[in-house]
Amino acid sequence: MHPRIGWLRGMAITGATAVSLAAGVAVAAAADTPSLGNGDCWQASTPLTCAWNHVGVKGYVWFRAIDQFSGTKPAYLSPAQAAVNAWNSAPGPQFVSFTPAQNDVWTYMKVDTEGQNGSGGHTVICDYITKSCSSAHQPYDIWYSTAYINTSYGDVYTAAQRQNDWGHEFGHSMGLDHNTTDSGAIMWPQLYATVGGPNSSDIGHWPGCTSGGHGMDCIYGLGD
Hints:
Blueprint: H1 15-21, E1 49-51, E2 61-67, H2 77-89, E3 94-97, E4 105-112, E5 121-127, E6 132-133, E7 140-150, H3 151-154, H4 159-173, H5 200-203, H6 216-219
Parallel strand pairs: 1-7, 2-3, 2-4, 4-7
Antiparallel strand pairs: 5-6, 5-7
Helix pairs in contact: 2-4
């Protein structure tokens, strides 16, 4: 229904591959996950990739996972639940659940038969201001998102690899970009990875985000 855009997962990130995947993206020099603009959502003057109902508000943010895949791919459900639980139980400002919450931001979880450019998964983000689903690597006020797993890979993945793929794509749906400096991060873009949940790079560094920062703590304003 929406253009299939954004945040591709492919091969190990080295050399020219890293340049290709990170084209147009502000990539962190340290081992943490960059967000476009490298600053906090509560700093309303900074263009960022953040949940629309959190921009200008320093605090916590809720994300709701919506299952639109298990009817056709029941084996994908348990890894998806594990990925959501890993994000929810990690430190940081994010609450992530399949259960609705007031003012939550929705992420539809789906499967795809081809993915994009041979990737293992991809995420489409729709902007609240423009009411459209636009291209990746630009500022968004996240209205809702759709995270896909490419079944060409997913059907041969182990449960741990499916969990990694769901967790990685869900990270994009919350506003995180690829991490090209920390192979232990859930946002490290590599096929067949088995990282089960976010690490300190994905959550970010506290304190010290006033002039820009990376990870969930920084982009959602709890890093100071």
